[in-house]
Amino acid sequence: MTTRKLKIEGMSCSACVGHVSRALSSLPGTSDVTVDLESGQATLNADSAKVTIADLIAAVDEEGYSATPLESA
User: Fold this and answer.
1) Where residue 52 sits, what CATH number does that domain have?
2) Residue 4 CB contacts under 8 Å (≥ 6 apart), including other chains
3) pLDDT tens-digit profile of 31-73?
4) Are 33 and 42 a contacting pair, CB within 8 Å?
5) Which residues have C-beta within 8 Å of that of residue 70, sequence separation ≥ 6?
6) Burial class (CB in 10 A: 0-12, 13-18, 19+), 67
7) What is the pTM of this model?
8) How many folded domains does the chain comprise?
9) From CA 10, how far away is CA 29, in angstroms rounded?
10) Which residue(s) pair with 3 in the sheet?
11) CA distance 16 to 38
């Protein structure tokens, strides 16, 4: 598992946080998803054999937000 961080743009409320969190959590190979409204960041563990950074970005995009990768922790 690799810790991934994403910058999420377009979130304005706790419902937005829920949408992004559910989108990322629903992907196979993800766990421990945390989305922070104040910092505009998502942090999660991802199994690189099951999910790519492009998959993570696409899942967020499908919810109507934009995501860009930050440096992995």
Assistant:
1) 3.30.70.100
2) 43, 44, 45, 46, 53, 56, 69, 72
3) 999 999 999 999 999 999 999 999 999 999 999 999 999 975 4
4) yes
5) 5, 6, 7, 41
6) buried
7) 0.90
8) 1
9) 25
10) 45
11) 12
What's phi and psi for 32, nearest 5 deg? 50, 50
Instruction: Give the strand pairing for 41-46 and 66-70.
Output: unpaired
Distance CA 38, CA 48 (A): 27
Name 5's bridge partners: 43, 70
CA–CA dist 44, 5 (Å, integer): 7
Q: Please give the single-letter amino acid code of residue 29.
A: G
The boundaries of the domain holding residue 57 are 2-70
The tokens describing 49, both together, are: 């054999």
Output the six-digit token pair for 27.
Answer: 């992907």
